[in-house]
Write a structure and sequence with these properties.
By secondary structure, the protein is an alpha/beta fold. The chain has 13 helices and 13 strands. Helix 4 runs parallel beside helix 7 and helix 8 crosses helix 10. The structure holds ligand FNR.
Length: 361
């Protein structure tokens, strides 16, 4: 039989991923002033031992106002480079590849960790931490969320520069990939969605205008990021509500992102607001794979599928179906950091002890 697609390499610019398994970005709420800690070394390092083709860090804030929670990773200051470089060096030492997910939480900035309830900071909590919620328009993300400050032109320019500066720091830290977090209701999603973006200037109104800020960020980051290294972008393919961002919009966005120099579109969904959270598509195995498939087919872009991809045979079917070029695994990899090795075994590959960490193999 043919070699499983899941364990065939994928070349993106000058980077060759040894297999198609990507560890999905997952917030840990374990950083100190945005600096990676021992937790990140162990958490991300274990996936390198597990044989993933690429590991993505959690959403890493490009500015203090862009944090989901106070303990997010950040790359808004030079002091945050060395602690992340330590993680990158460890992963590289194990023959792994690692990317950083750059994020700005926008109007969903400032919330408690999920295990502390996940609720939004009050205005008093935002003030106490010197944080502001920023968005396209003064429309709150839902009950319990304060109304964000609408970004003016200078604010928009500053956000773009924050992404550029964070990208330069990602280069300094030695990352192999940058992924832009344009999904889940954070700053970029809020500009894309007509439910959150009520602007009447060049950044609001028709879809082309709503895409302007995300595309400007992508182009600016591409200019800072070495041409040899791939740029990923996670999007929410659909808001999940009536008259909101939909799959046709995402096909158009995927094309435009590719023109801006994005190499992989990572297809997630939802997260725009408390209201849409209740009405998004039912969750089941591979519940977002169809979105990746349509975007890949219609926009002709490289896609990464994510969402309840739980084992090797399922992942292999997704790749064979032509829906995606890469699969991202989140919770299943938390349960089993050696998920890629198990998947290889389940797909009938002989044990590749030479590819194991030398101390294990
Ligand atoms: C996430 N997810 C997520 N997504 C993202 O783009 N940036 C992030 O920082 C996070 N943080 C995060 C934390 C935790 C603990 C979980 C479980 C999830 C979403 C994640 O990347 C993935 O898209 C979903 O979990 C769906 O995939 P799985 O878990 O079904 O494989």
């Amino acid at each position: 039989p043919d070699r499983p697609l899941l364990f065939s390499p994928l070349r993106l610019r000058d980077l060759v991923l040894p297999n198609r398994v990507v560890i999905s970005p997952m917030c840990q709420h374990a950083a100190e002033d945005g600096r990676a800690t021992d937790w990140h070394l162990v958490h991300l390092g274990k996936f390198a031992l597990g044989g993933a083709g690429l590991i993505l860090t959690e959403g890493t804030a490009v500015s203090p106002h862009g944090r989901i929670g106070l303990k997010d990773l950040g790359l808004w200051s030079d002091a945050q480079v060395a602690p992340l470089a330590r993680v990158v060096d460890f992963v590289h030492g194990q023959g792994g590849l690692i990317g950083v997910q750059l994020a700005h939480a926008g109007r969903k900035a400032g919330s408690h960790a999920l295990w502390e309830g996940g609720h939004a900071f009050s205005q008093a909590e935002l003030d106490a931490h010197g944080m502001r919620r920023l968005g396209p328009s003064p429309v709150a993300a839902g009950p319990g969320w304060t109304v964000p400050d609408a970004l003016d032109e200078a604010g928009i320019a500053a956000v773009i520069e924050d992404f550029a500066a964070a990208t330069r720091r990602a280069v300094a830290a030695g990352f192999d990939v940058v992924e832009l977090h344009f999904g889940h209701g954070y700053l970029a999603t809020s500009f894309l969605s007509p439910l959150a973006n009520r602007r009447r200037d060049a950044f609001g109104g028709p879809r082309e205008n709503r895409m302007r800020l995300p595309l400007a960020i992508a182009a600016r980051v591409r200019a800072e990021w070495p041409a040899a290294r791939p740029l990923f972008c996670r999007i929410s393919a659909v808001d999940g509500a009536a008259d909101s961002w939909d799959l046709d919009d995402s096909v158009a966005l995927a094309r435009a992102l590719t023109s801006a120099g994005v190499d992989v579109v990572d297809v997630s969904s939802g997260g725009l607001s408390e209201e849409t959270r209740r009405i998004t598509v039912p969750r089941g195995l591979g519940f977002q794979v169809g979105y990746a498939g349509r975007i890949r087919q219609e926009a002709g872009v490289v896609t990464q599928a994510v969402g309840m991809i739980v084992d090797g045979p399922q992942a292999e079917d997704i790749l064979r179906s032509g829906a995606a070029d890469l699969v991202a695994v989140g919770r299943a990899a938390l349960a089993d950091p050696y998920w890629p090795r198990r998947a290889a075994e389940d797909l009938g590959l002989p044990p590749n002890y030479a590819g194991w960490p030398v101390r294990h193999g």
